[in-house]
Request: fold
Amino acid sequence: MSDEQIDSVEALLEEARLTARMPKPAERLRLRQAAGLSRAQVAAAVGVGRQTVTNWEDGTTDPQPPGRFKYLRLLEGLAQIHPAPAQAPAETAETATPDMASSVESQTAWGPDGLAVQGEPGPCIRCGVMTPYKATDGRSLHPGAMCQPPAAAAPQAAAASAPAPVAAPSPAPAPVPSRPQRRAKSAARAQAETAGLIGQAVHEELERAEGDTDAALKALIKRAIPDVMRLFEDTRATARYAYTAYPALPDVLKKPSKKEPDQIWEARPNFHHPDYSLKSPGSVAVTALDVNAAYLSALKSWLPIGKLEHSTGTGGVDPKRSGVHLITPAPWHHPHLPDPLGDRDQPGPVWVTNATLRLLLRLSTPKYGLLEPPVVHESWTSGATENFLDALRKTLTAARETAIAEDDTITLEYIKAMYSKFISTMGESIHNREMVRPDWMHIIHSQAYANLWGKAYKAHQAGLEVIAMMGTDELHVTGDWRQVFPEGRGVAQMKIKHSDAKASGEYTIGKVAR
Reply:
C-alpha cells in the first residue's frame, strides 16, 4: 500500500473517529458562541450555507459531507480552547488513573503546516484506540479534546446515583418575547452577520493588494457575482422556494439569437419635452437629477416563484400573480409627460412584464385617469411574491448606507457591482450558472423604469416641468426640486447628476419656437 493510500485510509479513520465523538447539538452551539464566531463565519470556513450550520446546531440535521469533516475538525479545535464546564465532583480527578490524569494535561502536537503530527501508531493515552497522531510529549493521542476515557462513564454513573440536591427557588421568569419580536431580532442578527461578509471581502482584497485600492476594487468587481450569490443564499436561510429548480420557460422568454433583441419590452424611457431644446436660446433653469441605486430599489418587485402557466384574456391578470403579458396598449395623449410604456414607436401588440402592466393599469384608474386600460391578449404567469429578494435588498442597502457614512468608496463600488451584476446575469448568462430566470431580470428592469416614472409624475404634480427622463436613474426638471425630493445619496433620496454631457448638473434651456 502506497503512502498516499495510507494517508487516505487514515483520513477516513480520523473522520470516522470524529463522527463517533460528535458533540450534541447544544454543545456545537456552545462551542461556536464561546469562540465568538458567527454562523456565517463557520459556514464560509466549512463550505456550507448559514442555514445548514443553524440546522446542525439546533439538531434538525446532523453534519453531512462534504462539510462534515471540516466542521468536526473545527469543533475539535474549539473544544480544546473552550472545554465544557466540569460536571463530575472535584474528587473525581483524584481517583483517575495516572494515564488518564496525564492525558488531560497532554496536548496534540501540531506541525508548521497546521496539521496534527503523525508517527508510529500506538494506543491513545486518552481512550486506548490505536492512532498515529502524537501529543507534545511524543505519546499517541487523538487530536482534540473530544475523545473521552472509557472509565469516564463511571464517575457520571456514580454522580447520577447520588441524591439530587434540593433545588433553590427559581427566580422570576424573564418575559418571553413575542414571535414578531423574535423574528425581528433574528432577522437583524442574520443581516448583521451577512453584512459582515462584505467587510471581510473588502479587507481580504485590500490586504492581498497591499493597500492598492485600485487593484483591490478590480478584484472585488471580478468576484462580485459569486459573492452576491453567496449573500443571496445566506439571506434565504428560512426560505422554502428553491430558486435553483428552474421551471421550463415559454419561447417568448428565450432570446432568438445573440444578434436579435429580447422579445420582452421593458419600457425603457428616453423622454424629452417637445417644447424645450438645448439648441434654442433661453434661460429656463434645469437640474439633472440622479436616482440613487435604482436597480437596488427595484429588487422589491413582484416575481413569479413557480412554473409559468399560460392563460388568455385577463385570466392571468391577478394582483398575486406575476409574469409576462401580451397587450395592446392604449394611446398616450400627454406629450408633457413621459409615456409609461417607454420609448416605443411601433404600434400594435407587445409583450411586457408584470411591472409595466401594473403601472398601466394603475394609471387607468380614476385616481389618475391618464389613459385607458390596455387590452390583454395572453399571459404567462404564476403565483408571486414581492418579498423574494427583499432580505438581500435590505442587507445591501444597510451596507451601502454604512459605506456612505464612512466615506468608503471601495465598498460602495463593490456593493454596486454586486447588485447590478446580480440582476444582469440572472437571465441566460455564462457568468452566472446558479440562476436562470430571464423573467425576473426583465421584471426588475421594468420595475426600475416604473419607479422612475413615478418620480417624474410626482415632480409634475408638484408643479415642476419634466424636461427629460432617460434610462433607469436620470430625471431633468425645472423649479425647486428640493421641495419635492430629499437631497442626498440614500436610496430614498436624489442628487444632482454630473457627467460629461452638456445637459448635466444645472444648466439652462430654451423653448422651441412654434
Notes: DSSP finds 16 helices and 15 strands in the chain.
